[in-house]
Amino acid sequence: MKTIKIQDVVARDGLQNEDQFIPTEQKIALINRLSNAAVDKIEVTSFVSPKAVPNMSDAEAVMKGITRQPGVTYSVLVPNLKGAKRALECEVDEINLVVSVSETHNQKNVRRTTDQSFENFRDILSFLSNERIDVNGTLGTTFGCPFEGSISEDKVLRLVEQYLELGVSGITLADTTGMATPNQVYRLAENVLKRWPELPLTLHFHNTRGMGLANVIEGIRAGVTRFDASLGGLGGCPFAPGATGNICTEDLVHMLKFIGHDVRADLDQLIDSAKYLQSLMDHEVPGQIIKAGKINDLHPVS
What we know:
Blueprint: E1 3-8, H1 10-14, H2 24-36, E2 41-46, H3 59-65, E3 73-77, H4 81-89, E4 94-100, H5 103-110, H6 114-127, E5 134-140, H7 153-166, E6 170-175, H8 182-195, E7 201-205, H9 212-222, E8 226-229, H10 249-259, E9 262-263, H11 267-280, H12 289-292
């Protein structure tokens, strides 16, 4: 069995799609709960235009207001050089860059070609060259695009190489629109790790078609040990018709622990945190474990 790192993205990827604005103090409390639950990484916020993503309008206040815990990496998404400068002022541990492998999706998401996005990243990496901040490069729509269909594995590998040439310290392959299949995940992850065996590789799955946790199992079989997930299963891509949320953090940790993998995160604290999250929302969250309980929870005979 393996040691698996859990990286929660609810405060950014989850909340950015919500119409309901979550107050700053509640975001801070949510992130502090995740820190206390000992997840390995938290994507705290994104330094984007407040007009574009209202729930991220308090990025600085959230980043500066959280209580950081040893052993937890605090990451933020940055779309441009202005965002990188804002992130630097908040002393983040890691900056996450995102580009879609699909040209169509990238145009809809950031109104740039893939090449233009990489030119933008080159400016960001140059600005950060003397700073002690890790930079992670994410490739969206790695496993399929609802507009273009199948994505060329050769293009994925070529863009991984472009990221590494820029100097990023890790790569995330993201199933932005929930189109990945387990056999596809195994094949691509295995090929990436064969070519770059020491690469810190993360897989980011959505559960749009119910295959998220199956994809995790195949990712682990291929050698991947880092996975993004969202507390309560919140999230989804605003540019993918019918897209639902990310794989659920507490459901993922529950599965991994009962399979026998080593996971630092505390499952009971994650379940409590998911219940707290649901109390903030004006709708039910998609996670299963907060509804059904753990498989070793026993009930009295009526």
